[in-house]
Amino acid sequence: MSMHIEMKIPGAAVSADPLQVFAPYDNRLLATLDTADAVAVEQALATAFALFRDRSRWLPRAQRINILEKTAALMAEQRDVLALAAADEGGKPLVDSRVEIDRAIDGIRNCIECIRTHAGQEIPMGINAASAGRMAMTQHEPIGVVVAVSAFNHPMNLIVHQVGPAIAAGCPVIIKPAEDTPLSCFRLVELLREAGLPEAWCQPLVVANLDVATQLVTDARVGFFSFIGSARVGWMLRARLAPGARCALEHGGAAPVIVADDADLETALPLLARGGFYHAGQVCVSVQRVFCQRDKAEQVATALAAIARELRVGDPTDAATGVGPLIRPREVTRVHEWVTEAVAAGARLLCGGEALSGSCYAPTVLLDPPRDARVSQLEIFGPVVCVYSCDDIDSAITAANDVPVAFQAAVFTASLDTALQCYRQLDASAVMVNDHTAFRVDWMPFAGLRESGLGVGGIPYTFHDMQIEKMLVVKSDAL
Hints:
Elements: E1 3-5, E2 19-22, E3 29-33, H1 38-53, H2 61-77, H3 79-90, H4 94-117, E4 122-123, E5 134-142, E6 145-149, H5 157-169, E7 173-176, H6 183-194, E8 202-204, H7 210-218, E9 222-228, H8 231-239, E10 246-250, E11 255-259, H9 265-277, E12 287-293, H10 294-309, H11 329-344, E13 348-351, E14 364-367, H12 374-377, E15 384-390, H13 393-400, E16 405-406, E17 408-412, H14 416-425, E18 430-433, E19 449-450, E20 453-454, H15 459-465, E21 467-475
Parallel strand pairs: 1-3, 6-7, 6-9, 7-8, 9-10, 11-12, 11-17, 12-15, 14-15, 17-18
Antiparallel strand pairs: 2-3, 4-5, 5-21, 10-20, 13-14, 16-19
């Protein structure tokens, strides 16, 4: 039986048609939600901006810590329920959704650590005639109203990455989750409010249409815009931000992995499969392009295909499932078109290459697709791994860099020199050695380069960006 979620914007009336949310695996109706029209969005912005402008209403650090501590405790108590709900609405297998909830809980705790450890600095004075008799220091203040737009693939943890730092920094936040997966977001906001956060400090909403979403993001009262999603939408919105608004954009990649001749394949292959097929490849740093020297490429691809065939694909709420559905049926169609195109152009299909249902696509391994095929140049965002034959490490690096995106990369090797060569020459913000490209802990910097994004993610870095550093200079004869 589906549920209905009412408007969570204080004082806003319902006037737009409700949003229906369906389970991606079997298309069950999970819930309906009130949607925000232009009037409701204006109410949310006015509420948040008035809160920010009235410094007497700012939440003290101790209160923010207390709210976040209680939120983490509530999430821990409800961990299994939250994980099952996230798996159902987002399609990530239950075993991985449990890990996501654990990460989200730890992310809330990370926000608390940020409050406790982030400090200003002393600016040197009294070091020449101009600075004599003065002292100076800085403190941090919230940047203003945060508007966050999120993605579907981590329906709880991504929200924590955007909302948690905003609350920790003292910013009122308006959060728009992906329309495919809004339920985890609304549940987190409920928990924050249960933990004592006043309603106006975090307002979740889904919007009636793109025009309303654009109205929300581009309003002059927005101090910081946080976006996780497609490059096309992210760059478009960034170009329309009001003067002075800061932003962080997290888009996708086409993550490369170099497997050197001396790599330990027994260790590497399970990691490559994990990084490529986790959440059906719907991860912005998923293993997509694997480069091997020519005499090893077929061996690596064949072994990857053998692992892929053994993965259980199906219901994400079943604890035995290894690969769940794609988020929408049209994504199954798109992925199949890309794979079919690559095979027609000369790629060898070693496994998969077919839809298993209207929502699930078989884990797929391609050997030597053309370098200009869409599977080689664009983010697949599906359970497809491509393996390429290269003459040497230098040509592998050149091919790895020959795409418009750059995010995380990896190399498998026993040689320190090879690892450092790849670290130095690969276009990436992070290079993993003997691990897959999708490795992440939430306190590390996480940044897309070129078309892959703008700014640096990771909870402490987002917390920093959602504040300004304000200086105090005191002139005194006593100094």
